[in-house]
Amino acid sequence: MSATPPVVDMQPWFDGNAQQRAELCREVGLLCHRIGFFYVTNHGIPYSVSETYLHALKAFFALPLAVREAIDKHRSAQFRGWEKLGSELTNNQVDYREQLDIGVEAEAIAEPDPYYMALIGPNQWPQETELPGFKATVNDYFERLSELARQLLRIMSCSLGLDENHIQQVFGANPAPYLKLIRYPRTRAGGQGVGVHKDSGFLTLLLQDEHAGLEAQANDNSWYRVDPLPGSLVVNTGELLQLVTHNYFIATPHRVINSADQLRYSSAFFYSPDLNTALDPLPIDARFIEQARRSERHHGEGLMASRAEMAAGTGGMQSQLRPRVFGDKYWQRWVRSYPDIAAKFYPGLHD
User: Fold this and answer.
1) Can you give the pLDDT at residue 2?
2) Nearest CA to 144 among 269, 292, 330, 281?
3) Where are the alpha helices (DSSP H) in 35-164?
4) pLDDT per position as a tens digit, 202-243
């Protein structure tokens, strides 16, 4: 395959004719099937807006340590806020990155039922006096990314022969996206910036600064670079799009290793549905299902294992569990990555 992911120009989706839009949908569908990684350009978010957001992201990590510690993730039952280096686990190995997680702003639910509704709640922000305009800039970018994700899901719906609004309707009334602001120091020898994993949701949009480090796994198990491309965002499909498309779309393993001496900054946006959304297979054409069934690469592709599965010896990406609703999968993601926070707030429910 190509040494780098393909570039998809989204302009025809916004102002092209019916034939051009259909061709774009076909192209995106094939990329989601064959690779699961691609760049998008002319995506509707101005370059100046992305640069302003990236500047704000860097300014946050330049705040005094005490200011960042005041919104430590260990204070949040919703796994929101800042975390120091070495706080997160991927595939049961320690990652070497510093980050801030932001979700949909909401009041916490006093008696959550089902259990995963406990993940609904407030964000943690630095005080406005400490970083003026930061919250507004992040929230603006959050909304812009949400709209772009909705457009991409429309394209993907069409590529699968569905009505363009089908997947978005499946998402339910209250989607649960979240945004991760990240700073990578140079990766330690033998370590990982973030370890090999698949994204646990439906769709990821990644903004990178000028420094390389992201790598994705090819179908032959080799690794290729996903280097920064000015003006673009990286798109990759997550585990749940793989699941609901009968493995026709593929969730590609990827990792980050920052081998340079410079700090590397990036921002990952994960677009996922209402926590109560049932993870039922989409009614896609039988020919797509048959293609996945006949492909060894697709048919045997698993999901990221839960913490309990890994403890029992299941490989990191060979889970046999099939979550019933998105909230089940979302819960697994946070508990697997932050077992200490889960044990603190949910002592009887952290496996």
Assistant:
1) 46
2) 269
3) 47-61, 65-69, 134-159
4) 999 999 999 999 999 998 889 999 999 999 999 999 999 999
Strand 37-41 vs strand 7-9: parallel, antiparallel, or unpaired? parallel
pTM: 0.94
Report residue 349 as tokens. 């429910």
pLDDT tens-place string over residues 255-293: 999 999 999 999 999 999 999 999 999 999 999 999 999
Residues 118, 121, 126, 129, CA torsion sign: negative
The CA distance from 309 to 175, in Å, is 27
Q: Which domains does the chain have, with CATH numbers?
A: 7-345 (2.60.120.330)
Of 217, 196, 283, give the one whose Cα is nearest residue 246: 283
**Across 177-248, where does the E strand assignment appear?**
178-184, 194-197, 203-208, 214-217, 223-225, 233-237
Quote the CA–CA distance of 260 and 253 in Å, as a whole number: 22
Q: How far apart are CA 88 and CA 80, in angstroms?
A: 13
Find, among 207, 307, 304, 213, the residue nearest to 252 by Cα: 304
The token pair that represents 78 in the structure block: 């919703």
Which stretches of the chain drop beneath a pLDDT of 50? 1-2
Measured distance CA(332)–CA(306) in Å, rounded:
6
At 311 the pLDDT is 60
